[in-house]
C-alpha cells in the first residue's frame, strides 16, 4: 500500500512481459548542472521463458558492496532463456549513483537505499528508485534475493540470511532458499530496526526474501565472489526457475539472539584486533584494543566479548570512531 497515486518517473527500456533475453535500463530523469535533460541509468536484464515464478535479484543496494554486482553482471551476461522456466529480473546496481561513486549511500542525496522504502515518486533520487521497486518490480516477484556485503567499513564471515517472520510458511520457504544458496554460514535474523528496509517492503508484500553478507572491506575476494556466483544459481534452481544441477554446499547456521552480540566503540583510535573472523571467543575475552593516537605512553582501551561465540563481523578500517560497530559475535546453532 502506498499513499502516492502519482506514476513513477522511472521508465524501463525493457518489456517485463516479453520472452527471451533483454538488456536495458531503468531510466530516471535527473536534471543537473552537467546534463539539463540528463538521466540516472540503472542497468537491468530480464530473462524469461514459459510459465513459472519470477525472481528479482539485486546488488549494490549499498554502493560499496561488490560480490552481488559481480555475480549479477556475470549472470546477466550468461543466463540463457532455454535454461529458465519463468522469469529472472536482474538489477546488479540498484542504487546506481552510489555504485558508480563506490560509496554506501548516494552521492546525489546521501540516500541510504535500505532506509528509503517505500520511497516516493516525487522524492529524492534514492526515494524515486525505492518507489519504483516498491510499486513496479516487487509486485512482479515471487522470490527476491538482495546481495549485501560489509562495504568499506565492515567485514563479514560469508553468510546468507532470512528473517524470522510472523508467517511461518513464508519464513520456511525463505530458509529453504538460504540453505540452497549454500554459503559457508547461514543466519536466521531477528530484525531490530526494520523501518525503511527493502527486506521489510518485500516481506510485507508476502514475497519470499533472502539476503546475504558475503565479505567486505570495499572489495570482493575470489572466494566470496565464487560463493555469490554459485549461490545465485543454487537460489534460482531451488526457486524452480533454473533448470540445472544444484551444487549443494555444507553450511553452519548462526544465531544473533540479542544486543550482547554487538560491540560498539566508545572511544576513537587505532584498533588492534585480538581475534580474527571465524574464531571462537569466550565471554569476557578481549576482542580488540583501541590505542589513543594523539600521544604515546597511553593505555589502550580494552573491548571484551559480552558473550561466547564466533567472531562473525568486524570493523574494517584501521581507525575507529566512537559509536562504530567493532565486532559481532554469533552463536553456532543447529539448522
Ligand atoms: Zn549493505
Protein model, in words:
- The chain is of the alpha+beta class and 335 residues long.
- It has six helices and 19 strands.
- The strands form two sheets. It has a 15-stranded mixed β-sheet that branches.
- The protein is globular.
- The model has no long low-confidence stretch (mean pLDDT 96).
- The structure holds zinc ion.
- Zinc ion is lined by residues 61-62, 65, 148, 151.
- The site of zinc ion (ZN) has 5 residues, from loops.
Brief descriptors of the model:
binds zinc ion; 15-stranded mixed beta sheet; alpha+beta; globular; 335 residues
Give the gist of this structure.
The chain is α+β, with helices and mostly antiparallel strands and 335 residues long. It has helices spanning 67-78, 96-101, 125-140, 168-181, 198-204, 222-238; strands at residues 11-12, 20-29, 39-49, 54-58, 86-91, 143-146, 154-156, 159-163, 185-189, 208-213, 252-255, 262-264, 269-273, 280-281, 286-291, 301-304, 309-315, 319-320, 325-333. The chain is globular.
- The CA-CA distance between the termini, in Å, is 34 Å
Major β-sheet profile: 15 strands, mixed
Unreliable residue stretches: none
SSE series:
EEEEHEHHEEEHEHEHEEEEEEEEE
Percent in strands: 25-35%
Mean pLDDT over all positions: 96
Bound molecules: zinc ion
Helix percent reads 10-25%
How many individual helices? 6
Molecular shape: globular
Rg, nearest Å: 20 Å
